[in-house]
Structure formats: structure tokens, C-alpha cells
Inverse folding.
């Protein structure tokens, strides 16, 4: 039986979007609704969730203020450190390197993703620990260097782990940059440094913003790296969530924290997009 | 210095190679101050490369380029007194019109005052008739308007030379014709040397005061538009600039007699020959412009070939006819309205006689390989 073109068109669309749609519905939308419901509930007598409609969980957020502050500090600082390291690499890959070697270097950038972040973070633990780099330094006479369990170690682990996620979007937007614009800038008398700050950097901002938002958002939920390399002395939202859901089994309070975190993410994303549109001058610029 | 001061740009034996490919080969060219020069040639012949070497985006592999008497090899683009209108405009998408135009002024040292910058930006925008558009974003402008912004962005710096790379190629025909006139007016008003790259012979002939015809990285002819059209230096120029009918022939008796393929002969004393020198005995090609051809229903005195009209194309002010002549091939004939009255036009299928005045024939020796 032949289908009418319109019916056919709808069917094809449904088949294309169906799997992802169902997936998102069951594993993102439904859980989020559950979390929303939990967040206005009460803790059951033996933990878990008891139905209720109260905002007392949100009123209690203050007790975890330290985790929020630490997270809201770690995420942007970590993302910014990532950016400082990633931009020159992305610039080199997109502008300077000769095209034949580009593919190889790009695959080296993502190569670390072939092993799990946990393994690689353990490797750093060893490297920074007493039998790693400090030991080598002792051999050449520099003693009492402490690397592991310092803020520096956490930052290093974060930059290392998230670097590819920052490099890629910046690389893409630099790669798209029309070289004629740079020539136009030189033609109008601007030297290379001026050209970088007035043309290259502003036009790569969509990539910078994407990378920054991506890494910031992921860092908001990060707790492994601070735990392993920072000695677990500083608490983050991620730690709080693990604790509330798995140990103290206070699901409603955990849900309230999770909802607040999502709200923060939405705000950050919105600001980042607005800012990018403003600077890039057009809404047609996509966030890559 | 004194010797070259009347020339704004000089190419001295300039060659540009990209690896094994020679894009531009041994160019010698002087462009005098205030000239409007068109570099004309088919795509890939090296026009843009020449322009980019003046702008400082490419360095010659051999030879030197001088601007205003100063040798420019090794001088960066941002230190050259020239500005360029790029092929696809290359406007900064993150700046508005005003910021685009002000870009060059902001780079000037010593710094210009804000008032000075905004005054000059206003002037430049007025000159390209874009007053009132200062605050617009680039993507809100039409192609024609973007083209004017690009122009304003270049001339606002008062360069001694303005380089234009196919500036009108992206515009529709009507707009293109209007811009041709505007560019010409602008050039006269500013007195800036213009170097325009184009593959459109009409554009080159109508705008420039000097046309430089190029092919395969070399200059084929340099001269005023009429000169190029009326006295092409070789067959390539004759073919590329305007339309041409070709007749193969053999020159005899020291080039004074031309014997055509159909056996007829014509005396060649009045013919124009490429460089003015005579034609040696041997194979030659005779080139005649379609509008110089005479077509009639009855045989006229002088050289004439009998043929049959195969197509008629009415173009408004003129009509083009394709005429097949046995033994000599197809001819293109352009008649204006005075030639054959409109109500008495020759129709396809009719038999006609073709002729041409001897002085309209250009005779070129066929290059023996
Ligand atoms: N950057 C480049 N690298 C290699 N070859 C080039 C480059 N630029 C131009 N060419 C080659 O040089 C020749 C002349 O190019 P171009 O000057 O752009 O011609 P035109 O402007 O007359 O169309 C062409 O064969 C082109 O492929
Ligand atoms: Mg070109």
C-alpha cells in the first residue's frame, strides 16, 4: 500500500528521532521529573523518600553552602585554567600546523579518552605522590616538595582531564575562521598581535564559550579528581550528592541540591550564549 | 627615486612560483600615478597573484616590486601604502559598518582623534552613498551594500594605490553596470591609482584607461582599451577581448597576398598586422570583428563569400547572425539597426554574401610548433 508523501515524511521523521527521543524521555525527562517530585518531598523514616509537598529541603540548602561555594569556585577556575592551556594548542592545530600532520595531532589530543579517567587520575596520584616526582626531585637534592593533596594537584588533574573538551570546540571555530579576514586586517595596517585581539579572538569566541560552558558544567558535578588528588579534604556538590543518595539516604535533600545545580547550569548556559551572540554579532553563529 | 616617482607601481622581472607551478612569469609593468589599470585575463592566468604581490600577501620568487619608488620585497602588508578590496569583501562580521570602515584609521600612528576618525568615516560612507547605515551589522546588508562598505573601508585610509580583486563579480548585471560608473567617478575624484582585476573584458574596457591582458602568467598586451580592441597584438587577445571571426589563410609574395582555403586571394597591403611588422610567408590567421563584417543579399564588390544564415539572435540594439560559409567555416555577423531595416531582416536559411573592408582584417602568423 503506497503511503501519501506527507504520511511518509512524518513516518521517516519519527523513525529518525524516535530512538533518541525515547532514550531521552526515559533516562532524562522522567528521572528529572522524579527528582523534582523528590525535592519537594520528605525523608522517609528509614531514609529514601516519603510523599509530601514542602520546600523545607530548599530551605536547608544553606547547610551545604560550603560545597556550593567550593564547586562554584572550582568549576570556573578549572575551566579558565583549561582555556589558558587549550587556546594556544587549538590555535596551533588550526592555524599553524601543516595540514598533513593535523589529523595525527588531533587524534593525539583525544587519545587519552581511550583509557578511563579514573585510571589516568590514579596514575597522576602516583606521579605526584611521595614515590613519584617528589622522589625524583629528592634525588637531585630538592627536598620536601609536596605535590599531592594540594590545590595545585587538583587543578593539574582537572586541566589534564578536561583539556580535549576545551581544545575541540576552539579548534573548530578557529578552523572555520576565514583567512581573508586576517589579510584584510593586515591590509588595513594592523600588525599580527593587533589582528589576533581584534579579529581572531573575537571570532573564535563561540568556540571558547562552548568549551568553557561544557567544561564548567561537567566540573559542577566533578568530585573524583578533587577526592583523589586533593585528598578529599574539600567537599564539592558531587561529594554531597554521593553522600546524600548513597550513604545517608536523604533522597529529598539530595534532589533539592541536584535541582539547584541544574538551575545554575541553565543560568550559566544562557549567559554564555547571550554573551557569544552579542560579541559575534549575529544569532546565526552556532555554538561550535 | 626621482626616476620612478611618476610611477606608483613597478614590476621588474617578477616571477612567482608555487612549488613547481609558475603562476606569474617575468612580468615587467609600470603603472603611472593616478592610472586606472585593469588586469584582464581568463581564470587562473595569474591576475590575483599579481595583485596579492602588490598588497604584500605574496612575495615574488624573482624580481622586485616597487611602490612609489620604494622596493617592497620583504615589506609586510601592514606597512604598505596600498589598500585592497577583497574578492568576497572580507568584511569583519563581528563589527558593524562604522567599525569596519574605521578599522584602518584606528591602526594609524600617531593616533587619530575620535572626532577625526568619525569625521572621516562619515565622509567615506557618504562617498559610497551609505550615509545612515553606520550602525548596521554586516549580515544585514545586501551584496551591493557590502561591496560599498568594502570600498569605503579601503578608501578611507587614503592609500596611494587601491587594489580591487573582481570587485563586481558577485553583483547582478544592473548593479554591476551602475557600480562600474561609480567606481570610475570615484577614481577620478580621489585621484588614487586603481588596479582592478577582472576576467570580464567588458568591465575592463569600459572602466580602465589602461588594460593589461594576461594569459598563462604572462602579459600579452598593454594599452588603452580602444587600442586593445582595434589592434590586438595577437590572436589570443583578439579572441579574448570581444568576439572574433577567424579565417585560415596562407601568406604569399612576402605577405602581400593572402590565399584563402576556398582558393580566393586578397591583397594584404591594408591589413593590420599584430606588431605592425609584415607577415612572413606561410600559414596565417585572419581575424575580423563581427561588427566589421558586411552582409548583403546581392554580391558586393571586394572580397566576398557566399554562405547561408543558420541562426539569428535579436539582441535589441543589434542583431547577431551565424552564417555558414562552405570551405571557410562559421561566421558571426553583427548588424545594427541601420544595417538591414528591421522589417527586411535576413532570416535563417537565406543565402547571403559576406565581405569586410581590408583594413578591418588582422593578420597573425600561425605559430609553428
Ligand atoms: N597559494 C597558492 N598555492 C598554489 N597555487 C596557487 C596559489 N595561488 C594561486 N595559485 C595558482 O596560481 C595560478 C594563478 O592563480 P591566480 O593568480 O589566482 O589566477 P587568477 O586570479 O587570474 O584567476 C593558478 O594556477 C592557481 O591555481
Ligand atoms: Mg583571481
Amino acid at each position: 500500500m503506497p503511503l501519501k508523501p506527507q504520511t511518509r515524511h512524518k513516518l521517516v521523521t519519527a523513525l529518525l528521532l524516535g530512538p533518541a527521543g525515547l532514550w531521552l524521555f526515559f533516562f532524562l525527562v522522567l528521572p528529572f521529573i522524579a527528582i523534582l517530585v523528590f525535592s519537594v518531598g520528605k525523608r522517609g523514616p528509614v531514609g529514601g523518600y516519603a510523599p509530601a509537598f514542602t520546600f523545607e529541603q530548599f530551605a536547608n540548602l544553606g547547610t551545604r553552602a560550603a560545597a556550593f561555594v567550593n564547586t562554584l569556585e572550582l568549576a570556573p577556575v578549572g575551566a579558565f585554567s583549561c582555556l589558558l592551556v587549550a587556546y594556544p594548542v587549538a590555535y596551533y592545530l588550526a592555524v599553524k600546523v601543516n595540514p598533513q600532520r593535523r589529523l595525527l595531532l588531533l587524534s593525539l589530543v583525544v587519545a587519552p579518552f581511550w583509557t578511563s579517567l579514573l585510571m589516568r587520575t590514579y596514575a597522576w596520584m602516583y606521579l605526584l605522590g611521595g614515590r613519584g616526582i617528589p622522589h625524583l626531585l629528592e634525588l637531585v637534592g630538592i627536598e620536601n616538595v609536596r605535590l599531592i593533596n594540594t590545590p595545585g594537584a587538583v587543578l593539574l588533574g582537572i586541566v589534564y582531564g578536561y583539556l580535549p573538551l576545551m581544545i575541540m570546540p576552539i579548534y573548530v571555530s578557529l578552523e572555520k575562521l576565514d583567512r581573508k579576514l586576517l589579510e584584510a586586517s593586515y591590509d588595513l595596517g594592523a600588525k599580527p598581535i593587533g589582528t589576533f585581539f581584534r579579529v581572531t579572538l573575537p571570532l573564535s569566541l563561540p568556540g571558547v564559550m562552548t568549551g568553557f560552558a561544557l567544561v564548567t558544567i561537567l566540573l559542577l558535578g566533578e568530585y573524583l579528581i578533587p577526592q583523589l588528588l586533593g585528598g578529599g579534604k574539600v567537599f564539592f556538590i558531587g561529594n554531597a550528592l554521593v553522600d546524600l543518595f548513597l550513604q545517608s539516604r536523604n533522597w529529598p535533600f539530595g534532589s533539592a541540591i541536584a535541582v539547584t545545580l541544574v538551575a545554575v547550569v541553565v543560568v550559566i548556559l544562557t549567559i554564555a550564549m547571550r554573551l557569544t551572540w552579542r560579541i559575534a554579532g549575529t544569532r546565526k553563529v552556532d555554538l561550535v | 627615486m626621482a626616476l620612478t616617482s611618476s610611477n606608483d607601481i613597478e614590476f621588474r622581472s617578477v616571477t612567482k612560483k608555487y612549488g613547481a607551478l609558475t603562476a606569474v612569469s617575468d612580468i615587467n609593468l609600470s603603472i603611472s600615478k593616478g592610472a586606472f589599470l585593469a588586469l584582464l585575463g581568463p581564470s587562473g592566468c595569474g591576475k590575483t597573484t599579481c595583485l596579492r604581490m602588490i598588497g604584500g600577501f605574496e612575495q615574488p620568487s624573482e624580481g622586485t616590486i616597487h611602490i612609489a619608488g620604494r622596493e617592497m620585497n620583504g615589506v609586510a602588508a601592514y606597512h604598505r601604502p596600498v589598500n585592497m578590496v577583497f574578492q568576497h569583501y572580507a568584511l569583519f562580521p563581528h563589527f558593524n559598518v562604522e567599525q569596519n570602515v574605521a578599522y584602518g584609521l584606528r591602526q594609524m600612528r600617531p593616533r587619530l582623534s575620535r572626532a577625526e576618525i568619525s569625521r572621516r568615516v562619515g565622509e567615506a560612507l557618504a562617498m559610497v552613498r551609505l550615509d545612515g547605515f553606520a550602525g548596521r551589522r554586516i549580515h544585514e546588508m545586501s551584496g551591493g551594500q557590502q561591496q560599498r562598505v568594502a570600498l569605503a573601508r579601503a578608501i578611507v585610509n587614503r592609500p596611494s594605490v587601491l587594489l580591487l580583486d573582481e570587485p563586481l563579480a558577485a553583483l547582478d548585471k544592473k548593479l554591476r553596470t551602475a557600480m562600474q560608473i561609480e567606481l570610475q567617478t570615484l577614481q577620478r575624484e580621489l585621484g588614487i591609482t586603481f588596479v582592478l582585476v577582472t576576467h570580464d573584458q567588458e568591465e575592463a574596457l569600459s572602466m580602465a584607461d589602461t588594460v593589461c591582458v594576461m594569459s598563462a602568467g604572462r602579459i600579452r598586451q598593454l594599452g588603452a582599451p580602444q587600442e586593445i580592441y582595434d589592434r590586438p597584438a595577437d590572436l589570443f587577445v583578439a579572441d579574448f577581448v570581444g568576439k572574433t571571426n577567424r579565417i585560415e589563410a596562407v601568406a604569399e609574395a612576402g605577405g602581400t597576398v593572402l590565399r584563402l582555403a576556398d582558393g580566393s586571394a586578397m591583397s594584404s597591403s591594408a591589413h593590420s598586422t599584430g606588431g605592425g611588422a609584415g607577415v612572413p610567408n606561410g600559414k596565417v590567421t585572419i581575424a575580423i570583428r563581427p561588427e566589421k563584417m558586411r552582409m548583403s543579399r546581392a554580391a558586393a564588390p571586394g572580397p566576398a563569400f557566399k554562405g547561408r544564415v543558420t541562426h539569428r539572435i535579436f539582441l535589441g540594439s543589434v542583431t547577431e547572425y551565424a552564417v555558414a560559409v562552405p570551405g571557410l567555416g562559421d561566421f558571426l555577423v553583427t548588424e545594427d539597426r541601420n544595417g538591414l531595416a528591421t522589417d527586411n531582416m535576413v532570416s535563417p536559411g537565406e543565402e547571403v554574401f559576406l565581405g569586410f573592408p581590408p583594413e578591418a582584417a588582422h593578420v597573425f602568423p600561425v605559430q609553428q610548433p
